[in-house]
Amino acid sequence: MKVSLENVATKESVRVDVHSHIVGLGLGPTGAPLPMGSGLVGQQNAREAAGIAVELIRAKKLAGKAILFAGPPGTGKTALALGIAKELGDNVPFSMLVGSEVYSAEVKKTEVLMEHLRRSIGLRIKEKKEVYEGEVTEFTPVEADGAIGGYEKTISHVILGLKTVKGTKSLKLDSTIHEMLQKERVAVGDVIYIEANSGAVKRVGRSDSYATQFDLEAEEYVPLPKGDVHKKKEIVQDITLHDLDVANAKPQGGQDIVSMMNQLGKPTKTEITDKLRTEVDKVVNRFLESGVAELVPGVLFIDEVHMLDIECFSFLNRALESSLAPIVVFATNRGKCAIRGTEIVAPHGVPVDLLDRLVIIKTMPYSKEEIAEIVKIRAKIEDITLDDGAVDKLSTVGAQRSLRYAIQLLTPASILAKFSYGAETVVQDHIDELINDENPLFLNARQSAAIMKEQGGYLQ
Ligand SMILES: Nc1ncnc2c1ncn2[C@@H]1O[C@H](COP(=O)(O)OP(=O)(O)OP(=O)(O)O)[C@@H](O)[C@H]1O
Ligand SMILES: [Mg+2]
Fold first, then answer.
1. Does domain 36-120+298-362 have CATH number 3.90.226.10?
2. Nearest-angstrom CA–CA distance, 181 and 192
3. What is the DSSP-derived secondary structure letter of residue 132?
4. CATH code, residues 126-239
5. Ligand 1 pocket test: which of 16, 40, 403 has the largest number of ligand atoms within 8 Å of its C-beta?
6. Whose CB among 25, 87, 120, 434 lies 3.0–4.6 Å from 298's, allowing a Cys bridge?
7. Cα 317 to middle of ligand 2, angstroms
8. Is the Cβ–Cβ distance between 364 and 326 less than 8 Å?
9. Ligand 1: does its nearest atom lie under 6 Å from the Cβ of 19?
10. DSSP code of residue 140
11. Where are the domains positioned within the chain?
């Protein structure tokens, strides 16, 4: 039986996560926060500070240092950290971890941290490679004669025509390259290049001359390449230290850049040891010194940092000393509390020696107006229509309880409206029905606790 997933994902089943509306920090050209921007509302001091952090990260001035977002629950700490990631863009590595994720039966705590630290350090490698580049003018797979039995035809080779501004060339290529061409979905009119050594195929985009009259196309149009079809081209590749660790966990070949890179993408199951990492670091440092590669310190975001214990903290403290350290962003909603694994009480549950390295960005509770704006943004993202009364009710609830609670009510309210009342728009009454004081459909934590107290608990 052939299983296809293509028709399964309908609009309804697309999962919308709670931070999907955040696309940046919403700062103006001078770095001042817009009242509303990139999906963010209010919290302007913290957003401006986060913007400065982004600039420092870009200027590589924060490596080995750390930022802590501190503030009450639901004040946007996680949201802002993700905003930083969005501002930094795809070329800066960003890795995320929740404090409690370090506790696993299979992997040591420090190993989890180490892996994440190394996922957050990028290398940009520039290499001059021999390539064939051009717009595809012909793409003809040639079937092998007299294939042995079976229904499938085998491809013996493929004829590929490539055109540049300067000229055209027709290539006869091996069948393995045919597979790669198919994987990249190469068609006539695409601009591609093929690495001469490895035969790796890269689709750059669609050629300008094929740009259609339709604007709504998820297609990148690129100009016809200049120069010869066969030439040397500088190729930039972004990888992380973790990619190199994994790729070299089963070392084969030498430690020059080509063989290290060739390990990429080959599946291995060997454990990554400290020794291996030291070796990788040595080679990386050589790359850096010789100018083949450039270091791109990225960001490791550790949410709910109070869940880390003293062992993790001292490991992090040492890791931050390394010359290959990323910028670490922490977040916590704890004030003073005990450092996990000790009885020492410290601000935010973080040891003082680590606190000394941090700059702290404070987040504040939202006003009712700000909550109303955020509720509207979320409703739009979740495709839920609210009338003004519903927005008002939700923002009142949000201001009394928490922003997250208000956002959380959106989906149940829209389901109630649809199925119990056949209504497309959520109105205040629907929300009242969910959470009123007398006979609510859903209790909030405070109501629930009050009932437990009244009844003396469940176990009697
Ligand atoms: N300023 C804001 N603008 C728009 N949406 C926001 C803003 N602040 C928070 N949100 C949204 O509100 C919800 C709660 O915020 P978030 O999860 O960031 O809070 P938090 O401070 O990390 O809370 P906790 O301490 O409980 O982890 C999320 O869905 C988040 O995307
Ligand atoms: Mg959070």
1. no
2. 9
3. E
4. 2.40.50.360
5. 403
6. 120
7. 22
8. no
9. yes
10. E
11. 36-120+298-362, 126-239, 368-454
